[in-house]
Amino acid sequence: MTTPVALALAVGGLIVGVVVGFLIARDRARREERRPTGPTVAELLERLVRSSNNGVVVLNKFGDMVLHNPRAYELGLVKVNQADPRARKAAEQVVETDDPMEIDLSPLEARGRQPEAVLGEVRPLGDGFTVVEAVDHSEAIRLEAVRRDFVANVSHELKTPVGAIALLTEAVLDAAEDVEEVRRFGGKILRESTRLGQLVTELIALSRLQGAERLPDLNVVEVDAVVREALGRTTLSAESAEITITTDSASGLLIEGDRTLMVTALSNLLENAVAYSPAGSPVSISRRLVDGKVEIAVTDRGIGIAEDEQQRVFERFFRSDKARSRSTGGTGLGLAIVKHVAANHGGSVGLWSRPGTGSTFTLRIPAHIGAEPAAAPKQAPPASRPEKTPERTPRLVATGQESPDHGGNL
């Protein structure tokens, strides 16, 4: 039988339990209200590590991975769920010395398009833990290689005409009393100095196109006017080589671009066609609108370009026929300029070629949007005569703003 005292104690305990439960629930509710919304600091740190452009791996004192991000796999810092042995060995030294150190984590074997130069830094975190951070320096290494190659090529190309001018000048001094010899050597000095000046001019133009200077604002340009001006620039060299340049009828097409640069690019293509064509062979220009792009094609019946060299003709100082290019005074930069002019206009340059048959270079530039083609002139320029050329499918040659890029065949 329950006594009044026991009943009172039971009721009191129940009340105390209810009060304590209420206080705990209220305190928990207040903590929930004070807790900030959004991710915690730990979650943010994890996101930071995973989104980092550098490879990050945390190792314990046994060399086992505690944490890593996806970029560590891409850079080769982690393979088959294990850290690179070079990183683990460096981590052991860092734990012993408690001093950070740098290590080379570049791939030991080149495979495909993987990073070529990876530099790692190992830092102590305390309690036997270390962090290895890997950075991809491949692009900087490639750019440095391109720079060295470019400087070497420029030095070689400048050395040739400068050396020739010096030797010819000595010959002139030795033959000062022989008028005919002085005149002959003087002509050679003039040709070499002209070639030297052309080389410097084209180097400056190429540096501007590659981003050293801001390009002019693009305007609406008449394609027919570009063709006429480029023809005018190449008339002398074509007549000297006994080559006739013909064109199709005026098109009235418009593009958005810089007229001077477009004339330079087309002139380079024409000069290239003339330089690599036998005397008496034809060179033609055609233009048309295809899928919103204006195509300006230059076709020759010259020596052609081997398939394994077609990707290289746009490299700086590359010549498919070095002896012929030297004799015509080419600098090896003409097609590089064409490629960059096309790229800076949002277009591309295509190439079709077959040794012994000839070549077709095609400039593809976006057409002017929002305007009908301009009315074609009633009479074509006197220097232009239509010629039907065989239809060819130009082979597309990459002109990305890529790239490391060289280019030239003139």
UniProtKB/TrEMBL annotation:
SMART domains linked: HATPase_c (SM00387), HisKA (SM00388)
The keyword Disulfide bond appears for this protein: no
Top EC class of this enzyme: transferase
Region (Disordered): 371-410
Keyword Transmembrane: yes
Residue stretches of biased makeup (Basic and acidic residues): 385-394
Main subcellular location of this protein, as a coarse class: membrane
UniProt-listed Enzyme Commission number(s): 2.7.13.3
Residues annotated as domain Histidine kinase: 153-369
Subcellular location per the Swiss-Prot or TrEMBL entry: Cell membrane
Organism: Amycolatopsis speibonae
Protein name (Swiss-Prot/TrEMBL): Sensor-like histidine kinase SenX3
Keywords associated with the record: Kinase, Membrane, Phosphoprotein, Transferase, Transmembrane, Transmembrane helix, Two-component regulatory system
Cited InterPro entries: BphY/WalK/GraS-like, HATPase_C_sf, HATPase_dom, His_kinase_dom, HisK_dim/P_dom, HisK_dim/P_sf, Sig_transdc_His_kin-like_C
Transmembrane portions of the chain: 6-25
PANTHER family xref list: PHOSPHATE REGULON SENSOR PROTEIN PHOR (PTHR45453:SF1)
GO MF annotation terms: kinase activity
Xref: Pfam families: HATPase_c, HisKA
UniProt signal peptide: none
Superkingdom of origin organism: Bacteria
Catalyzed reactions: ATP + protein L-histidine = ADP + protein N-phospho-L-histidine
